[in-house]
Design brief:
The complex is a heterodimer of chains A (about 950) and B (about 450).
Chain A (H helix, E strand, L loop, with lengths): L11 H11 L4 H16 L8 H6 L6 H14 L4 H4 L3 H7 L5 H13 L3 H15 L4 H17 L1 H6 L2 H8 L5 H17 L10 H13 L2 H11 L7 H11 L8 H15 L7 H17 L4 H17 L19 H14 L5 H11 L5 H17 L4 H13 L3 H17 L8 H6 L7 H13 L7 H9 L7 H17 L5 H12 L5 H16 L1 H8 L15 H9 L4 H5 L24 H4 L21 H13 L17 H4 L5 H7 L14 H6 L23 E4 L7 E10 L2 E10 L9 E4 L7 E2 L14 E9 L12 E7 L4 E7 L14 H10 L5 E9 L3 H10 L3 E8 L2 E9 L5 E12 L2 E10 L5 H13 L1
Antiparallel strand pairs in A: 1-2, 2-3, 3-6, 4-7, 5-6, 7-8, 9-13, 10-11, 11-12, 12-13
Helix pairs in contact in A: 1-2, 2-4, 4-7, 7-8, 7-9, 8-9, 9-12, 11-12, 12-13, 12-14, 13-14, 14-16, 15-16, 16-17, 18-19, 18-31, 19-21, 20-21, 21-22, 21-23, 22-23, 23-25, 25-27, 26-27, 27-28, 27-29, 27-30, 28-29, 29-30
Chain B lengths: L1 E7 L5 E6 L8 H10 L9 E4 L2 E8 L2 E7 L5 H19 L4 H6 L1 H11 E2 L2 E2 L4 H7 L52 E14 L5 E14 L6 E6 L3 E3 L10 E8 L8 H4 L1 E4 L4 E10 L9 E10 L3 E10 L6 E10 L6 E6 L5 E5 L4 E10 L3 E9 L11 E8 L8 E7 L10 E15 L2
Parallel strand pairs in B: 8-24, 11-12
Antiparallel strand pairs in B: 1-2, 1-5, 3-4, 4-5, 6-7, 8-9, 9-14, 10-13, 10-23, 12-14, 15-16, 16-21, 17-20, 17-22, 18-21, 19-20, 22-24
Classes of the chains: A alpha+beta (about 950), B mainly beta (about 450).
């Protein structure tokens, strides 16, 4: 017969023909017809129309035919559940068949038919089959429980199948045990808390016995189950290890790896001083090495796992370097993995050998592999210090080949070597510069530019070289542009005289002609640094860079520990924990290594395994490429920036403004005090604001900064007070008002016995504590005092309203002065009015009480205004945008309970400044003037 | 565990498909084919996570044999199983090809049903499957000329005196039911793979010999097989290795091998059912001096205008009665060569440029032990600075020879009671082939 007859297209006529053949009386013809149906089904053709005809063939004593029909049923039952019911009787009957093959087949097939009605009929036959006399039937039934659980977990529990399954762990047939373990393990996964497998020393013993007898695949189920067991002490761990070790010489690599997994995990519990530990360690190497002679696909999987193992326990394979040497006929993916492991195993002892290999690889044909090999040479140099010199000379040899991609890779890694061993190999720069023209890859260009910039003082024509790159600035990739900018700034700082033009050119290219925000911002930073303080710029830009250390791509230790637990799962191939790639319902249980028993070991980290080569390597992971570009930015942004600079309310630190306001604000900013302890000042505000939070647009930007504090001014000059000079200001911190004073003794004699008193004033301000100057004030000495105030003193309306008359006494005399306090020190933290209340109050206050003011040339936008004012307890209740102008509605309350309502209209006057129009309404209109002054002071500073 | 299993033709057509766990869509084979054909060159194809699925596959005979799986499955189980499946399909269908698989779909499906239940591998043992399956294989006509994979191991020209008939092993191991006999034959192959790196000065940097003893039985029923190995064999390094010893660094045996007589007499005993099984895998200890089959003596001269004159002398150091076949030398060139002129010592040899002129290929069909072959090549390269030639790589097969010296001394078969009279035909073959034989220049 010919094979083509199965594969002609199923036209209508053909289905018809098959139908006829299926209903034929001749057994042979029937069987051939079913085979044809299966063939069509397998290649994806729809033959579901033949369902009744195929099911009719089910009652047969020909086992082959029966199998084929069952296969058909499994495939189509789900789409034709009603018709599938017709098959149930045959299934149930077959489960009682004297032939164990047929019993097993029936129960196996029924479990695969995911139709609820059929599942119901499955329970009784399954119960019988679980206790069948034939092990083949029992092992099939064990898996069937897992199938049923997948369809209907509740049913399995209700019917008590789980207990029967547990009993099967003690079955006399090892294959039944293995399948029961597999089924229980799967079911246990969906019930993480239940103690289904209930592993204890007795059951472990049974499993270990079955391990010696069952098939290779059954051994894997049992080993994988063992890996989840946590031995109670190191003695038990050792005895399990001893019984698992023989599996290491199994021919099936899956058995070997499952055994390795168990051993790696239980080894964690063994003391390293034990002789057995060393023996076991030695036994792990040969099976791993043997895996490397298998098919390339297996080799690949093995290499991915070995890669993890050598990071965790380099001592296992440290003498096996040679097996990782690349064979010329390895597939490329195997080659790349081997290369990676070679570098991980590289040590002083074997570096010469490794380097010789790598150099050979660099002359191979495959470009990807050659690149990797050149990079590997660089990684060796960084990893093994003693080899650095040899690596560099190898790289130079490779550069001499002038093969384009080899040269470029070599330059990239030499840059890394410079960063690891500064001032050691710079003599090679001349050779590198010769190859400037051949570089066409961004990474290599960037690396070369970095080198030129970093060593500008040693390269006579550095300016010419960089200038030549600058010509095509806009065609370069961002990486190169950023590097070029930095390099030219470095050059400028080293040779300022002849390169001024160049630096201006690059700064304007970066800041004005570029759309890339990274480039532009870095340009601005340099520009401002250079124009403000070239000395500081030098310190920042030419600062000593941290050395890059060790390998760049070690897996982070905690992840590595997790991955070690997943050896022999897909996670070990992807090098990602399952949580990173598992989708769907199956829960991911995070696994961890067991703690080591034995007290002397407990404090030791697992990484400190006794290895000569790696002992000194604490994995300091620094990303190689990004790091280089990022070094300047990291340094520049050293001082922490507390929030968006423009909205930084009253915090005025020079560093912050680097990013924002411009150079002029740097100058202006220096006069202000940074309110360090004032930070929690406004903490009370959100508490008091209550429901009004809904309208709290400023969202707490300003809440962490304190109320605005004016600079100190001289209140009492020395000449008027016999040598005592008093300067001061007022502040409000955490709801309390303070008078911050500086007393300076400009006389020739010591001053002591200070005291202070206030005259009656408009808001009843009075000292809350006596003026405390602890030691006598010596000549030319100053003392800073913060005097707490309250508002419970006597009240008398003053003119101007905020006038305060003060008397200060010392051992010499009594002195009088008066000062004006800013009204905002009286704005209380619960000054936020509810919106409805605001509207009602606004209407209620007569219009003649409204006062209008102008605040000119404010450099803030609405949000910044709002947050800045909130720092001083002026609360924004609502914000509206009317005809392109922002309107803020605000409220504040004075200590004496007077509410002031404000409407602030923000009009853009020119691009960078706005004019504010302030309307204040208050039942006591005389305060408006002073409130306006407070607004003005806060917003202008 | 295995969720779905499939075999696709090289063009992505579905030949076999089986869904073991009832999850996942039926379009998975299309998703797989899309993923495998669009894979970037620097990524390993073995495992792929695509469109929410994890794919694993191996390629054999141009077919994709693949599976989808869940994340917590052992990748070794998957790859081992797929490789076993391929072996089993060869045993049952004779060869593995698009044609043989599609003709035997029903049998393959029956096998899969016994091998895997709910994604758990149950068995891959031929004799177990034999007793549990009932389908009969449909044989396809042998087309061994096209099927390159069958050359070399089973059915190659291997032993001078007793040559097994060509493509004899490319038939199902199981004779049709009811027909007693067929040809009752047992093949035992000792196959070694040689990995060698020779430095530019001629000293060997690395010599690595891996070997395996494989058994393929066409004898129905169980018969006990005993084979004696070279007595000089020693395992492990703890034993003192005197002169003439043959130390092995690592040995692994198949679980069915009885080692009772191995320690004392180096005798393996096994009772195989029909089918193929690897009885023993071994690795020669590193410090053993293995006679290298080939030496390469190159001399390279740079002539003006980018012309490169390469004079290669290849010396075959095998004993005179042995020979090497299918010898191919690959020499990477530093630049794309534009033309090649050659002088070869015999007409059956050929030489050509490959890979767009990036490498030179010199093929020698047969080379007797002790022979020395010379060749002169002139290649035209772009005028750039001179640069070392890449390492030369040799591939070859050495029939009737194991470089380690491990041999089967004798092979005895005791037929089970009730077997037809006359001993089954026994074939013992030794073969070494190069895995990676690199000579640096």
């Amino acid at each position: 017969m010919t094979d083509s007859k199965y594969f002609t297209t199923t036209k209508k006529g053909e289905i018809f023909e098959l139908k006829a053949e299926l209903n034929s009386d001749k057994k042979e013809k029937k069987k051939e017809a079913v085979k044809k149906v299966i063939a069509s089904m397998t290649v994806g053709k729809d033959v579901s129309a033949l369902f009744p005809d195929v099911v009719n063939c089910m009652q047969t004593d020909n086992l082959e035919l029966k199998k084929l029909v069952y296969l058909y049923l499994m495939n189509y039952a789900k789409s034709q559940p009603d018709m599938a019911i017709m098959a149930v009787n045959t299934f149930v009957k077959d489960c009682e068949d004297p032939n164990p093959l047929i019993r097993a087949l029936a129960v196996r097939t029924m479990g695969c038919i995911r139709v609820d009605k059929i599942t119901e009929y499955l329970c009784e036959p399954l119960r019988k089959c679980l206790k069948d006399e034939d092990p083949y039937v029992r092992k099939t039934a064990a898996v069937c429980v897992a199938k049923l659980h997948d369809i209907n977990a509740q049913l399995v529990e209700d019917q008590g199948f789980l207990d029967t399954l547990k009993d099967l762990i003690s079955d006399s047939n090892p294959m039944v045990v293995a399948n029961a373990v597999a089924a229980l393990s799967e079911i246990a996964e969906s019930h993480p808390s239940s103690n289904l497998l209930d592993l204890n020393p007795q059951s472990i013993n049974k499993l270990l016995t079955a391990l010696n007898e069952c098939t290779e695949w059954g051994q894997i189920f049992i080993l994988d189950c063992l890996a989840n067991y946590m031995p109670k002490d190191d003695r038990e761990a050792q005895s399990i290890c001893e019984r698992v070790t023989p599996r290491l010489s199994h021919a099936n690599s899956a058995v070997v790896l499952s055994a390795v997994k168990v051993l790696m995990k239980f080894m964690e519990m063994l003391s390293k001083d034990l002789d057995y530990y060393g023996t076991l360690l030695k036994k792990l190497a040969p099976p791993l090495v043997t895996l490397l002679s298998a098919e390339p696909e297996l080799q690949y999987v093995a290499l991915r796992n070995i890669n993890l193992i050598v990071q965790k326990r380099p001592e296992i394979l440290k003498h096996e370097m040679k097996v990782f040497f690349v064979k010329y006929n390895d597939p490329i993916y195997v080659k790349l993995e081997k290369l990676d492991i070679m570098i991980r195993l590289a040590s002083q002892a074997n570096i010469a050998q490794v380097l010789a290999e790598l150099k050979e690889y660099a002359t191979e044909v495959d470009v990807d592999f050659v690149r990797k090999a050149v990079r590997a040479i660089g990684r060796c140099a960084i990893k093994v210090e003693q080899s650095a010199e040899r690596c560099v000379s190898t790289l130079l040899d490779l550069i001499q080949t002038k093969v384009n991609y080899v040269v470029q890779e070599a330059i990239v890694v030499i840059k890394d070597i410079f960063r690891k061993y500064p001032n050691k190999y710079e003599s090679v720069i001349a050779t590198l510069c010769e190859n400037l023209d051949s570089l066409d890859e961004p990474e290599a260009r960037a690396a070369m530019i970095w080198i030129v910039g970093e060593y500008a003082e040693r390269i006579d024509n550095a300016d010419e070289l960089l200038e030549s790159f600058l010509e095509g600035f806009h065609d370069e990739s961002t990486q190169v542009q950023l590097q070029l900018l930095t390099a030219i700034v470095k050059l400028f700082l080293k040779k300022p005289t002849e390169t001024q033009e160049l630096v201006q050119q690059v700064l304007s290219l970066a800041t004005q002609d570029s759309d890339n925000p990274d480039l532009r911002d870095r340009g601005y930073i340099y520009w401002r640094l250079l124009s403000t303080d070239p000395v500081a710029a030098k310190e920042v830009v030419l600062a000593e860079k941290p050395l890059i250390s060790e390998e760049t791509d070690l897996i982070e230790p905690t992840l590595l520990d997790e991955l070690i637990c997943y050896i022999g799962t897909l996670a070990s191939v992807y090098h990602k924990p399952p949580s990173a790639f598992v989708e769907g319902s199956r829960g991911v249980v995070h696994k961890s290594l067991p703690p080591r028993t034995g007290s002397s070991e407990s404090a030791e980290s697992p990484d400190a395994a006794p290895s000569a080569g790696q002992a000194a390597e604490q994995p300091a992971v620094i990303p190689a490429q990004g790091d280089l570009l990022g070094d300047l930015l990291n340094l520049d942004l050293g001082p922490p920036v507390s929030g968006p600079p423009l909205a930084a309310s009253s915090v005025q630190m020079g560093a912050v403004d680097l990013l924002g306001g411009g150079l002029d604000s740097l100058m202006g900013g220096s006069g202000f005090t940074a309110p360090g302890p004032a930070a929690p000042a406004a903490m009370g505000a959100p508490l008091g604001s209550g429901l009004g939070d809904l309208f709290d647009l400023t969202g707490g930007v300003g809440t962490l900064s304190g109320s605005y504090v004016a600079p100190k001014t001289v209140w009492l000059p020395a000449m008027k007070a016999k040598g005592l000079e008093i300067s001061g200001t007022f502040s409000r911190q955490v709801g309390s008002i303070c008078m911050d004073l500086v007393l300076t003794n400009k006389a020739l004699q010591v001053m002591s016995d200070f005291a202070i008193q206030f005259n009656r004033n408009s808001f009843g301000l009075a000292p809350a504590a006596p003026l405390q100057v602890h030691a006598p004030l010596a000549p030319n000495q100053s003392v800073e005092i913060s005097l707490p105030l309250n508002t419970v003193g006597s009240v008398m309306k003053m003119d101007p309203l905020n006038n305060l008359q003060v008397a200060v006494k010392n051992n010499i005399d009594v002195f009088y002065f008066s000062t004006l306090y800013p009204l905002h020190i009286l704005f209380v933290e619960d000054g936020k009015m509810e919106r409805q209340m605001f509207l009602a109050t606004w209407k209620d206050i007569p219009n003649e009480n409204e006062a209008q003011f102008q605040i000119k040339d404010c450099s803030l936008n609405a949000d910044a205004v709002s947050s800045k004012l909130q720092g001083s307890n002026i609360f924004t209740i609502a914000k509206r945008n009317v005809e392109g102008q922002d309107m803020l509605y605000q409220s504040l309350k004075l200590t004496n309970g007077i509410w002031v309502l404000a409407e602030l209209r923000i009009q853009p006057s020119n691009p960078s400044f706005t004019d504010l129009e302030l309307s204040l309404k208050c039942r006591a209109p005389e305060v408006s003037q002073y409130v306006y002054q407070a607004y003005d002071a806060i917003l202008k500073n | 565990m295995i969720s779905q299993l499939f075999i696709l033709s090289s063009k992505g057509d579905r030949l076999v498909y089986r869904n073991f766990r009832g999850d996942g869509g039926d379009d998975v084979t299309d998703a797989f084919y899309r993923a495998v054909t669009s894979l970037p060159g620097d990524q390993a194809p073995v495992f792929m996570a695509r469109e929410g699925q994890h794919f694993v596959h191996v390629r054999h005979g141009g077919l994709y044999v693949g599976a989808t799986t869940t994340a917590d499955t052992s990748p070794f189980v998957l790859v081992e199983f797929l490789n076993r499946l391929v072996t089993l399909l060869r045993e049952h269908c004779g060869t593995l090809s698009e044609k043989s698989v599609s003709v035997n779909v029903a049998l393959v499906q029956e096998l899969l049903g016994e091998m895997v239940d709910f994604g758990y591998v149950q068995t891959t043992a031929t004799e177990v499957l034999r007793s549990a399956t009932h389908g009969e294989p449909e044989t396809t006509k042998a087309f061994s000329l096209l099927d390159l994979r069958s050359v070399g191991l089973f059915g190659a020209e291997t032993q001078q005196s007793r040559v097994a008939p060509g493509s004899v092993t490319n038939r199902p191991v199981l004779p049709p039911r009811g027909e007693q006999g067929g040809r009752r034959e047992v093949f035992v192959d000792v196959v070694e793979r040689l990995t060698v790196v020779i430095a530019a000065n001629g000293t060997p940097l690395k010599v690595d010999v891996q070997g395996e003893i494989r058994l393929k039985s066409f004898v129905p029923g169980a018969c006990e097989l005993r084979m004696g190995l070279t007595e000089e064999l020693s395992v492990g390094t703890e034993e003192q290795c005197g002169y003439g010893r043959l130390p092995l660094a690592a040995v692994a045996f198949h679980s069915s091998v009885d080692l009772e007589e191995f320690e004392q007499e180096r005798v393996l005993r096994v009772t195989p059912g029909p089918g193929e099984v690897t009885l023993m895998r071994y690795q020669l200890a590193e410090d053993v001096a293995v006679p290298l089959p080939f030496r390469l003596l190159p001399s390279v001269e740079w002539e003006p205008a980018g012309r490169l004159r390469i004079h290669l002398k290849l010396r075959c150091d095998l004993p005179p009665k042995n020979h090497a076949i299918n010898v191919v030398l690959q020499l990477p060139l530093p630049r794309e060569a534009s033309s090649l002129a050659q002088e070869l010592s015999s007409p059956e040899q050929t030489a050509e440029l490959q890979g767009g002129g990036r490498s030179l290929r010199w093929a020698i069909p047969r080379c007797q032990g002790g022979a020395q072959l010379g060749a002169v090549f002139r290649v035209q390269l772009p005028p750039t600075p001179p640069l070392g030639l890449g390492p030369a790589a040799l591939t070859f097969e050495l029939p009737a020879l194991t470089v380690s010296g491990l041999r089967l001394r004798w092979l005895r078969l005791s037929a089970p009671p009730g077997a037809p009279p006359g001993p089954p035909q026994r074939w013992v073959r030794h073969l070494t082939h190069s895995d990676s034989y690199v000579v640096r220049l």
